[in-house]
């Protein structure tokens, strides 16, 4: 593996990154009170409303939530690939090794992408360019960021394909994305994210478009590479099973906000937020075969018309009078956990 | 890619034979229903039977099947294909080879096509890309407005206006002046000048390409906007590429696929000559040849030239199909 890392961060070519004062003692990735708004026809939508978390090297953070809760927008805001407008980063910080990425000029920031923070997307068929060979696309970061020659970039592409377990990498490197199966294509996506050995990988629903057996293989590969390369992995998913397997800690999002943060054992053992609890209860169980599935009643709020107070209160079985007007802060819960529920003690105890 | 080209070439054989057979059927049916063009040539005068028979023999009109309405005249078709293969597309009523007449005029039309194409591709794609990148901004509105005007105006209005305003009002004083360079005056000429085979075709070429320019700008704009929103462009951004690579490499190539299709059809049309533009600017091109032949009721010329143009159209479409596959690998493997 080490020879693959040969053109690591200390390459000869100077990039705008060299001018940045990265603090190797600072957390690998730290997001503080991130706010993203969308200007829509129906008004202002707070897609991400004060999300904070810390990720260290070798750690996997699962961001869990249903569709539209702001997980992907969070990921894209960290990457800096949101379309602005309509999106607008209204506040907060995204710090990589101490440097606030949001304050960087785009000409500098684009070098952070791929070099330091890379992203894996959901649907590899549409996320790969259909008119270029896989090898060309895999070699592109090396050519554009490290000044590799075409031949070197191609060799690098073969290495990367080997690394993600694609058989006959030498031949397949000149195939086009549509010639790969879904699982193999997702492996190509992973390989592409690893091209410049970033420290942080953000995987946005990396297995959602795959069938279950392939999902497991791809997740195993991703988890294996994460351990081997000591990556900081942000895993965004709505699949509680996937996070339970690989994440060290979990951040549960609801309607644009982080409602609970805890390590993976605590959260599955004893959730401290009614939403997390309801999510766990809605996982179908084999011993309840034949019974109705447990569901969370109601719908998540429309982001342009968020209810006052706690945004989960209309659907919450613990809700009291003050939930409808007092917005809960993130309370500290014993064991280094956090919960945005006024009655977390009651939820934890039940 | 090689296999794709080979398959395309093999598919081309039935296409061209089928098209030629349809043309043959049309002309045969016309003769069977309307009557012998040789007789029509003499109008009310009845020439001696010997002359008629000699002419009929010369133009392959003596086959008895031509008197049986509905008979496909397969034998005649086979003879024709043999003649076409050897480059013989018949002779006109004065005995001149149709192929020769065509080749005399084709270079003019080809030059006109090159100018029109260069104009519509360069200006059309540039305008489309600018409009697509600056969607809803001033430049986009400008491009959209201009293209609507170009598409809405009939070419004879646009051509006549260009002739009068540019060719006469601006071009004529330039050509008569001592100070203006010769090439500038010729570029804005009112008609074709054999001494300036390229320059004097610039204005007609712009008129001829105007409509397609608008269509290409529109297609490029829409396609670019659509592709800029695509997932693979988001991936390209996540790879930390600069704007030049994101647009120029990852977006443009995909966006040009529908544009190439359009250009391919357009090449075929342009090479067929334009009756209106060649008429307005009095250009001795293929369009004029067909027009004169129709006026003179010269059936062999009409049939011969239309046949050649059909072949030209089919071949240019074949070339574009192959180009299309070079741009989009998904095409090659179906």
From TrEMBL, chain A:
Keywords: ATP-binding, Cell membrane, Membrane, Nucleotide-binding, Transport
Domain of life assignment: Bacteria
Main location: membrane
Membrane topology: Peripheral membrane protein
Membrane-crossing residue ranges in chain numbering: none
Record SUPFAM superfamilies: P-loop containing nucleoside triphosphate hydrolases (SSF52540)
Compartments, record wording: Cell membrane
GO molecular function, one term: ATP binding
Keyword Nucleotide-binding included in the entry's annotation: yes
Any coiled-coil regions, as ranges: none
Domain ABC transporter: 31-280
PANTHER family: DIPEPTIDE TRANSPORT ATP-BINDING PROTEIN DPPD, OLIGOPEPTIDE TRANSPORT ATP-BINDING PROTEIN APPD
Family note: Belongs to the ABC transporter superfamily.
Protein name per UniProt: ABC transporter ATP-binding protein
Species in which this protein is naturally found: Nocardioides pinisoli
Automatic annotation (TrEMBL), chain B:
Subcellular locations according to the entry: Cell membrane
This protein's UniProt keywords: Cell membrane, Membrane, Transmembrane, Transmembrane helix, Transport
Domain ABC transmembrane type-1 residues, every copy: 106-324
Native organism taxonomy: Bacteria, Bacillati, Actinomycetota, Actinomycetes, Propionibacteriales
Statement: the UniProt record of this protein carries the keyword Cell division: no
Transmembrane segments: 12-34, 108-133, 145-168, 196-219, 259-281, 301-327
Protein's organism: Nocardioides pinisoli
Pfam families: BPD_transp_1
Family label: Belongs to the binding-protein-dependent transport system permease family.
PANTHER family, per database record: DIPEPTIDE TRANSPORT SYSTEM PERMEASE PROTEIN DPPB-RELATED (PTHR43163), DIPEPTIDE-TRANSPORT INTEGRAL MEMBRANE PROTEIN ABC TRANSPORTER DPPB-RELATED (PTHR43163:SF7)
Membrane topology, from the record: Multi-pass membrane protein
Protein name (Swiss-Prot/TrEMBL): ABC transporter permease
Keyword Cell membrane: yes
InterPro entries noted in UniProt: MetI-like, MetI-like_sf
Gene3D superfamilies reported for this sequence: MetI-like (1.10.3720.10)
